Amino acid sequence: MHRSALITRGKTLTNHQNTMFKKILIGLAAIIVIFLIIAAMQPNNFRVERRATLAASPIALFEHVNDHRKFNEWNPWLKLDPAAKNTYSGPQSGVGAVASWEGEEVGTGSATITESKPGELVRMRMDWKKPMEGTSTVDFTFKPDGDKTVVTWAMYGPQTFMGKAFSLFMDCEKMCGPQFEKGLADLGKIASSAAPK
Question: Domain 45-194 adopts which CATH fold?
Fold first, then answer.
């Protein structure tokens, strides 16, 4: 083949490759823009909630939530990561009590009791460090129902842009909801077995 023809053919291939490369870049940029728009349109707040009617008194159930050490006896997250390291600080129970954790599965964070009403409410501030930073609120409420108690476990808070983006891949409702259900069931078993006969 003549040298000039080879040069012409080489230029044609290069132009074709440049055009394909530009199309790929434009396509990737469009995907990123669409992803950012969808993420930005996610709710500004999230809430996951489960409730269960348990065969124990409000005060008995309250005591297993208001003390982090007792809480960790039925905490479903610890069952997912039994090797996680837990530390406690502040008072034994009630306002100011802090539990911190660090593990492969559960990440790193802490829970601080910010409000405590015997037999009615335990509120905690959750500070997440890893795998993603964030802060949320957890409420446990206790409502008498005959000789039983309706316990509600709710977690809620604001969603940052990163949280919104993360929610497109990991649904907090699906991640946390089933664990809340397991935890409440185990709380009921522990509290009822510990109640005086």
Answer: Alpha-D-Glucose-1,6-Bisphosphate; Chain A, domain 4 (3.30.530)
